[in-house]
Amino acid sequence: MKHLLSAGDLSRDDAIRVLDTAEELLGVAQRPIKKLPTLRGRTVVNLFFEDSTRTRISFEAAAKRLSADVINFSAKGSSASKGEGLKDTALTLQAMGADAVVVRHHHSGAPHRLAHAQWTNGAVINAGDGTHEHPTQALLDAFTMRRHLVGLPGGPGGGAGPRAAEGTDLADKHVTIVGDVLHSRVARSNALLLHTLGAHVTLVAPPTLLPVGVESWPVETSYDLDASLEKADAVMMLRVQRERMNASYFPSAREYSRRYGLDVARMNRLPEHAIVMHPGPMNRGMEINADVADSPRSVIVEQVTNGVAVRMAVLYLLVGGATEGNDA
Ligand code: NCD
């Protein structure tokens, strides 16, 4: 695979390879010196047309831990934010010899355009495009689920210490994804990848926040959060985007929170081993109660840690893999 544009492009074997590689790389973060020489002399460009702290610094840390040179290109606010802007920027990067371009863009499809127009020879990694996809988020979520829910000594929920069994997927795990599915690239990428990994996905949202055509996704849907708690191995809460709150997708913040927010009473109805996830940034008190976010079931901080290992794995497999042996 040359690029990572969609979670749907990953076969089960591809996905498992990323997860297993990330498992190896997670150990690097625990060393006093958090660096491997793998991508020495390679250049990774972070091309962000949309604000992001978490994802950008995660990719930056990942690239640096593999000894790549990192160029952060924040293109937000640039007047040419559409096609030509992307093209010119890409040609500039090409001239600078980017081996990988990590792109976040407010337009769905921008990373595909970058890859398919061949404006760059580098590997294109989609770090979130519009409301479309966010494949590395789905990979880090799957990685986190696998560590908690699969093959750990001590059974389900045995803790995040030991490594998940290599080569395993998420067969028959139940994942409930709750909230603004309509605008969520996280939900879309997760639905695709979790399906590939054998999990059962239930999307829970008010009818107004489920996309048209969701019937063709490999998921179940429900308007009723309470009904889907008891069988869930993982519950993933989506951020309610502030800009949606006034757009009559739901009556009020309070009403949304009452019907679709994860509070302590709801959390207590989950199976004992179930984990609570959120891609961040959270609206505490809105889609997730603060006590839930800080509870021992919450793996939200761990998702951030795991994100670096997963992005290291993606960079390694797309950029480093083919050049092994040149690494004098
Ligand atoms: C997500 C995103 O930007 O798509 N966050 C992230 O990557 N850390 C989810 C969100 O913003 O709600």
State the gist of this model.
The chain is of the alpha/beta class and about 325 residues long. It has 11 helices and 9 strands. It folds into 2 domains: about 5-135 and about 305-320, Rossmann fold; about 135-300, Aspartate/ornithine carbamoyltransferase (Rossmann fold).
- In CATH terms, what is the architecture of the largest domain? 3-Layer(aba) Sandwich
Biggest β-sheet strands, sense, barrel:
5 strands, parallel
Q: Tally the helices: what do you get?
A: 11
CATH overall fold name of the largest domain: Rossmann fold
Got a strand count?
9
- Helix share, percent: 25-40%
What is the element string, with H for helices and E for strands?
HEHEHEHEHEHEEEHHHEHH
* Proportion of residues in extended strands: 5-15%
Distance between the termini: 24 Å
Strand order of the largest sheet: 7-6-5-8-9
How many discrete domains? 2
| Residue-averaged pLDDT | 90
Structural class: alpha/beta
Task: Provide the CATH top-level class of the largest domain.
Answer: Alpha Beta
CATH superfamily of the largest domain: Aspartate/ornithine carbamoyltransferase
Low-confidence blocks of residues: 153-159, 323-328
Overall spatial form? globular
Cα gyration radius (Å): 19 Å
